[in-house]
Specification:
Structural class: alpha/beta
Number of strands: 8
Bound molecules: arginine, manganese (II) ion
Number of domains: 1
Distance between the termini: 8 Å
Length: about 300
C-alpha cells in the first residue's frame, strides 16, 4: 500500500513539554524502515509546521482553551494533507504529537468520504468542550469538535460544520471520562464501549459488533484514531495522561488487527507519545513494535 507519513510535532493540545518529540524519536528508531519492511511504499512528508507561540500567550485566543489559534491552524493544515493523501489513494498515517490533531485528521477524511465513521481507541473520550473541560487542554476536545460541539475555531476547521455523525462514532477503552463527557456521549447516543463494557463483552465481541454496525450503515471510509494511553499505565510511562486498568500489549494488538485487517480503515492517527516522560525508551520501543504490527496487518 502507499502510505503518506504525516508527522505532527504538536504539544499545544496537551500543554506538556515532550509530546512534540514523538515523531523525532520514532524516526530515530527507524519508523520509516519499519513501515517499508512490511511491504509498503512510504512517502515521508516530514514534520508539519507548528507555529511557535510563547507560553505567556497560552490564553491569548480564549480564556479557557490553551493555544487555540495554533491548534486550529495546525489542524487546518493537517486536514488538507489528509484529504490530499486520500485523493491520491495513499493511506495517511498521522504521527503525533498530542491528540488534538485528531480533529484535523477527521476533518480531512470527512471531506473525502460521503459517510465517514471514526473509531477512537483511548482511555479518554476526548469529547470535552470549553465548558466541560477540567484542564483547558484541547487534546481532550477533538472528537467533540469533529461532532460539531465546541468553539467555532475548532468546529469549523477546514470547512464549516460537523465532520462526523454521532451514530458513526465508536469510542473504545474509555475509563477516564469527565462528567460532561459522560453526558455528551449519552445526549448524542455515541457508540461508547467503556473499559467496563469491553471487559464484560470481551474484545472479540466488541470488534465484531463495531464492524457489523459499520458494515450495515453505508459507511464508505473509517478513520482509526489510536491514543497510546489506551494501553495500561504500566506499559506507557511515556505518555502525558496514563490511566490504569488499560489494555495489555496483546490486547492492543488484537484490537488493531481486528480493525486494520478488514480493509475498511482508510486513515489512522498514532498519538500521545512523550519521550521526555519515558522510562528508558520503554514506551517508544513499544510504539515501534505496535507500528510494525499495524503495518503488518493493514489491508
Ligand atoms: N488525548 C488525551 N490524552 N486526552 C486526555 C484528556 C484528559 C481530560 N479529559 C482533559 O480534558 O483534559
Ligand atoms: Mn486521546
Ligand atoms: Mn487518552
Amino acid at each position: 500500500m502507499n502510505i503518506n507519513l504525516l508527522a505532527v510535532p504538536i504539544m499545544y493540545g496537551c500543554d506538556r513539554n515532550g509530546a512534540q518529540y514523538g515523531p523525532k524519536i520514532l524516526r530515530e528508531k527507524d519508523l520509516v524502515e519499519v513501515i517499508k519492511n512490511q511491504n509498503h511504499v512510504v512517502y515521508d512528508f516530514g514534520n508539519l509546521f507548528i507555529p511557535s507561540v510563547p507560553e505567556s500567550e497560552k490564553y491569548a485566543n480564549h480564556e479557557h482553551i490553551k493555544y487555540l489559534k495554533p491548534v486550529a491552524e495546525t489542524n487546518n493544515n493537517l486536514a488538507h494533507l489528509v484529504y490530499s493523501s486520500l485523493c491520491s489513494e495513499s493511506f495517511p498515517f498521522v504521527v503525533g504529537g498530542d491528540h488534538s490533531l485528531g480533529l484535523g485528521s477527521i476533518s480531512g477524511a470527512s471531506k473525502h468520504f460521503e459517510n465517514l465513521a471514526v473509531i477512537w481507541i483511548d482511555a479518554h473520550g476526548d469529547i470535552n468542550t470549553p465548558e466541560t473541560s477540567p484542564t483547558g487542554n484541547s487534546h481532550g476536545m477533538p472528537l467533540a469538535a469533529a461532532l460539531g460541539v465546541g468553539v467555532p475555531e475548532l468546529t469549523n476547521v477546514y470547512y464549516d460544520g460537523p465532520k462526523v455523525k454521532p451514530e458513526n462514532v465508536y469510542i473504545i477503552g474509555a475509563r477516564d471520562l469527565d462528567e460532561g463527557e459522560v453526558k455528551l456521549a449519552k445526549d448524542l447516543n455515541l457508540n461508547l464501549y467503556t473499559m467496563d463494557t469491553v471487559r464484560k463483552m470481551g474484545i472479540s465481541t466488541v470488534i465484531e459488533e463495531v464492524l457489523n454496525k459499520i458494515k450495515s450503515s453505508n459507511i464508505d471510509g473509517v478513520h482509526l484514531s489510536f491514543d497510546i494511553d489506551a494501553l495500561d499505565k504500566s506499559l506507557v510511562p511515556g505518555t502525558g495522561t496514563p490511566v490504569s486498568n488499560g489494555f495489555s500489549f496483546e490486547e492492543g494488538k488484537k484490537l488493531l488487527e481486528g480493525f486494520l485487517s478488514t480493509g475498511l480503515i482508510k486513515s489512522m492517527d498514532f498519538v500521545e507519545l512523550n519521550p521526555i516522560l519515558d522510562n528508558k525508551d520503554m514506551t517508544s520501543n513499544l510504539c515501534i513494535e505496535l507500528i510494525n504490527y499495524i503495518f503488518k496487518t493493514l489491508r
